[in-house]
Each structure stands twice: as C-alpha cells, then as structure tokens.
Design goal:
By secondary structure, the protein is an alpha+beta fold. It is built from four helices and ten strands, in the order H-E-E-E-E-E-E-E-H-H-H-E-E-E.
C-alpha cells in the first residue's frame, strides 16, 4: 500500500513539474502589445485615450490571460487607469488575438499639474487647432505621456514596458 501511495505521489509530482515548465515556456513565448495607443478626443471634460491589446501566441498551447489593466502616466505619475476586471480571456494557439478597445478618460483637473506647460504653448496649440490636425495639436501640447498594462498570463504576472504616447 505504501509503494502505491509513493508511486502515485511521485507521478503527480512529475506531472506537476512538467505542466509548470510547459506553462512557463508558453508564457515566455507569448507577446502582448498595445496596438495603436492614441488620443481619441480632446474636449472640455479632458483627454480620452483608446488602445487595443494584441496577444501573439506562437506556441502550440492555449494561453489564459486576465483582461489587461491599462495605465497612463506622465513622468512616472499615474494619470488614469482602466478598471480591473477578473475576466479571463482564452488565447488560442498559433495566432494573434485582439482584446476589445480599452478607453481611459483623464480630466483636466488631473492634468492641472501639467497645465503650466500647456499655458505657455497656447499660441502654437491654437494654430494646431485651427489647422484641424489633432496629432499636431497633441505634439504642440508637449505633455510627456506613456501607456503600459499589467495582466496575468497562465497565472504569471506580466507588466509591459511603457509605450510613449506624446
């Protein structure tokens, strides 16, 4: 009886180790990228950012992630963050999966610490606004902003490198 229990425990331990190594390999191969992070609108309420997240799974195994939490920072200071959802997303093997659009709103009060920089550039911002070129308007504002995300891939925590917006 003791030999049977020992063999069963040994087989379970070997199976667990193989499974963990396989999960680690899939997690190492999987890449997660912010796709087209952008300023969506600028209005009296503030700035609205949108981004999509693409997950590339080049392995033969299925990957499970949690819905990414996207953060917008300026000089290391958190400006806005998407809501955390305990929603699992199944990423199929040998393909790229896009996660639905994530939208973040930053009101002008949050940006008040950066407002002096904006005020000094009002003439160039007005010129950019009159030309109707939103990307030129954002460049003229000159606010350093970056976007990053965190998620769990097969139960392992992952944090992306920041992607510069402005």
């Amino acid at each position: 009886m003791n030999k049977l229990v020992g063999i069963t425990l040994g087989a379970a331990a070997i199976y667990g180790i193989v499974r963990l190594l396989k999960m680690q390999n899939v997690s190492d191969q999987t890449t997660i990228l912010l796709v087209n992070p952008r300023v969506h609108t600028i209005n009296l309420g503030g700035l609205t950012f949108r981004t999509e997240v693409a997950i590339n799974n080049p392995s033969r195994d299925t990957v499970t992630i949690t819905k990414p939490v996207v953060s917008v920072k300026s000089n290391g200071k958190l400006l806005s963050q998407s809501n955390a959802e305990n929603r699992e997303i199944i990423i199929k093997p040998l393909g790229v999966t896009k996660v639905d659009t994530i939208e973040l709103q930053i009101n002008w009060m949050t940006l008040s610490g950066l407002i002096t920089n904006i005020i000094s550039k009002i003439p160039s911002v007005i010129t950019a606004f009159k030309s109707g070129n939103k990307s030129n308007l954002i460049t003229q504002l000159g606010i350093p902003m970056e976007m990053s995300f965190t998620t769990y891939v097969n139960g392992l925590f992952y944090q992306s490198e920041p992607t510069k917006l402005i």
